[in-house]
Design goal:
alpha+beta, Beta-lactamase, eight-stranded antiparallel sheet, 14 helices, globular, Beta-lactam-related, signal, serine-type D-Ala-D-Ala carboxypeptidase activity, hydrolase
């Protein structure tokens, strides 16, 4: 085990020193209630950790059929919040001298990245981790999106994908911009390649490396990267989706059971609000990687591209910058928060906080709603309820 990791005992001790719930987070609770009442979310939870202790709030129900309530230890699919786990393993390998972020993809995966303007010799590991590779995001492939949205998703929800297949789907599309490093376009394909490089360097599975290097040292009791199983192990809420239909009256489907192989290193993991707190806090404090790799993790790039006419185009969440798996988000009040987040068919989750991790919020909403009352806005409103000062009207 790398020597720079803190002891599990110390981390567990820190985790249990939490004060009982209090009424100091009424604005957060109100935002959760609004997500359910006005936004149509089946449920939403938030856990706040600050110097006063720990507070957990919930709205809605974990299961629309039974009316079961949410609780803090539930596990859920975290989507792209899996990326910082993959990035952390890569950075640890760099700290151990087993790879360099300046290594080309070609060095570790010879002959794999080519075609449609892609050249694995020109794309580095760093480009993969900060989404500046220009490799097309396989999730936006027209053929695959048709299978993984709308009623077709229900027919393909258990389809198993290999990492190689996901990469090939991405590479059959034109690049997002000409040269690696010339812009930022979010690409799950890049993180699939990063996961493949981890396995090539270590000779072990990515799931095993995440377990050995992060989950066990941090004492994350509800976090794992699934294999081919399609059910979530342990207690969990049901996950719901309109399958990308944006009409306010769109039918809501139970999508809890599904293949995680479509996300893998880019978005296939399961976790809890408590585990996301502990992991994100470790990232912000720099306890998972040495200082040089910590600086690399928080070397941020703007999330967009410069168009030929010189104008700027946001290609991700407005007001964000991205490092390696982590990002900053400027809220509407001008406050910057830092952390991780992700979406998957069935929900959105975020763990964000101050840069020193003294004040943090982890959220999870059990629907991936787009269009009006979308899940991203629900998550942002909860963050703003905690981090932004109250407005004159009290909101």
């Amino acid at each position: 085990m790398p020597s720079y990791l803190p002891s599990t005992a110390a981390l567990l001790l820190t985790a249990v020193l939490a004060a009982p719930a209090d009424s100091g987070h009424a604005r957060v609770q109100k935002a959760l209630d609004q997500a359910v009442a006005a936004g149509g979310a089946p449920s939403m939870v938030a856990e706040v950790r600050d110097p006063r202790g720990r507070w957990f709030g919930a709205a809605g129900v974990a299961d629309l059929r039974t009316g079961r309530k949410r609780h803090p230890r539930e596990r859920f699919r975290i989507g792209s919040a899996a990326k910082p786990f993959t990035a952390t393993v890569v950075l640890q390998l760099a700290a151990e001298g087993r790879l360099s972020l300046d290594d080309s993809v070609e060095k570790w995966l010879p002959g794999l990245v080519k075609g449609n303007g892609n050249d694995g010799r020109a794309i580095t590991v760093r480009h993969l981790l900060n989404h500046t590779s220009g490799i097309f995001n396989y999730g936006n492939d027209r053929e695959e999106f048709a299978k993984l949205s709308g009623p077709a998703w229900l027919e393909h929800r258990y389809d198993a994908y290999t990492p190689e297949r996901l990469v090939k789907i991405g590479l059959r599309n034109p690049r997002s911009f000409e040269a690696p490093g010339d812009g930022f376009v979010y690409s799950n394909t890049g993180y699939i390649l990063a996961g493949m490089i981890v396995e090539k360097v270590t000779g072990r599975t990515l799931a095993g490396e995440i377990e050995r290097r992060i989950v066990r040292p941090l004492g994350l009791t509800g976090t794992y990267l699934p294999g081919k199983e399609t059910k979530i192990f342990g207690p969990h809420p049901r996950h719901y989706s309109t399958l990308f239909v944006t009409d306010p009256g769109a039918k809501v489907h139970d999508v809890t059971d599904q293949s995680a192989t479509t996300g893998w290193a880019a978005g296939g993991m399961v976790s809890t609000v408590g585990d996301l707190h502990r992991f994100t806090g470790a990232l912000l404090r720099g306890t998972l990687v040495p200082p040089a790799q910590q600086r690399e993790m928080f070397t941020m790039v703007k999330t967009g591209i410069r168009l030929p006419d010189g104008t700027w185009k946001d290609t991700w969440i407005p007001g964000t910058t991205y490092g390696t798996g982590v990002f900053s988000w400027k809220l509407s009040c001008g406050v910057d928060v830092w952390g991780i987040g992700g979406a998957i068919t069935g929900g959105f989750s975020f763990a964000m906080g101050t840069r020193d991790a003294r004040r943090m919020v982890a959220t999870h909403v059990t629907i991936d709603r787009y269009g009006e009352h979308n899940s991203l806005d629900m998550s942002r409103i909860v963050l703003e309820a905690e981090f932004c000062p109250p407005r004159p009207d009290g909101r």
